[in-house]
Amino acid sequence: MEVDGLSLIRSQGSLFGDGGRPIGLDEYQAFTKRTDRNDKIGADGLGFVLLGLFGEVGSLLSALKKKQRDKDAFSAYHDEVLEELGDALWYFANASLRADLPLSQIARSVSAKLEDWDYKGRSGASTFEDLQETGTPFATALAGAGVEHSLLSLAGKVGVLLADWSEGQIEKNRDRLSADLVEIFRALLIAADVAQVSLEHAVRNNVVKTLGRWPDDLQWGSLFDDEFPEYEQLPRQMRVEFIERTVNDRAFVVQQWNGVNLGSPLTDNRHEPDDYRYHDVFHLAFAGILGWSPTLRALLRLKRKSRPEIDENEDGARANIIEEGISTWIFNHGLRQAEFRNATSLDYGLLKAVHELVRGYEVESRPLWQWERAILEGFRVFRELKKHRNGAVTIDLTKRTIEFEELP
User: Fold this and answer.
1) Could you tell me the CA-to-CA distances from 113 to 107, 110, 151, 170, 304 in Å, in that order?
2) pLDDT level of residue 92 (50, 70, 90 thresholds)
3) Which has the least CB within 10 A, 53, 213, 264, 348?
4) d(Cα 339, Cα 380) in Å, to the nearest integer?
5) Region 295-312 average pLDDT
6) What angle do CA 200, 60, 76 make, to 5 degrees?
7) CA atoms of 5 and 212, how far apart (whole Å)
8) Residue 80 — φ and ψ, nearest 5°?
9) Range 221-242 average pLDDT
10) pLDDT tens, 38-51?
């Protein structure tokens, strides 16, 4: 179940007008300003952006190296290359914007300066699609010394820019920055050509990725069971009491819904206690904020049996195991991060890994910002349960919320 990138772009106020047409160089550059989280304005924040460009180009080169080396697995690396190229282009476009250099102007400077720039269309390029010849096969394996040379050239150009910046050369001579950026853009384009990667696809994927993390409009989407009979729907409001008890120095948690025990009593299942017995709060967070929890459906006996394929695949054992795995993984990760006590956002790598785990299931359609909120809100309530050793947790699927209430 793949998220439709064009639909996501259109849903954010038609960022690029007609979502079907190629993305413009200067349009994309303006987009990076809308999604920039750098507090410093203009050139004052350029150093931070250049560090980001250096890091992303390094990741791109690593992915391209693997694509060249592991030819039998190049198709798996192709998606990684697309993502890394898109990230590198974001930082490059943002750095150029802070330097008051439109991408279209940089593209013209590249073609005007170089005699070996063989594709005539590039000189008048206004979109990323214009920068590459139509019909290029964008998914074949890499090979040859030319590939290695182009990658080393890109690394070298970025290194020159960082050296000039650190030595203060750019502050003394702004033309030096312009020249460095032109050289890097040329190297990026050549690398994309020899790697046979579509710039248009890379940029479009980057837009979808960025909006999935930091959207202009918070669009929750419909609940997955809206079209199912009410007796197969997750409760739209649900209050679960967590009650900790100790028997023979062994602590466990009982959960009750409407006065009835929900599932079996839970212990930490570990030699060293870590309060994992409260981890079902994450299933409630997934249900309340994402509208998804095969585990909770199983506990409540609310599997969608009216559609056997949904019952088997979305509400079945494998989906249940995946959710339990995600809960355990983020729990362990959170413990290493002080339970995200002071966090307002999560590492992209964590969110991406979670999203990969649910690929092919209905919840894949939920953007990363919803996963981020579900995880952070789950930990917020978990910390309250841990502090008070009991409490009532209320979820509201219509409001997409989860709240804690101390029990008397």
Assistant:
1) 10, 5, 21, 20, 63
2) very high
3) 264
4) 8
5) 97
6) 75
7) 10
8) -65, -40
9) 98
10) 888 888 888 999 99
Prediction pTM value:
0.85
CA 50 vs CA 107, 115, 141, 213, 406: distances in Å: 19, 28, 30, 22, 48
Distance CA 9, CA 300 (A): 37
Determine the Cα–Cα distance for residues 27 and 129; give it in Å rounded to an integer: 13
Reported as type and span, the H/E element at residue 244 is strand 237-247
Instruction: Report how far residue 356's alpha carbon sits from residue 372's, in angstroms, rounded to the nearest whole number.
Output: 14
Write out the two tokens for 141.
Answer: 């394996």
**189-193, 262-266, 282-286: lowest mean pLDDT where?**
189-193
Assess contact for 401 and 218: CB atoms under 8 A: no
User: Which candidate, 285, 296, 284, 294, places its Cα nearest to that of 319?
Assistant: 294
Nearest residue to 165 via CA among 183, 181, 151, 177: 177
| Residues in CB range of 358: below 8 A, 6 or more apart | 322, 326, 364
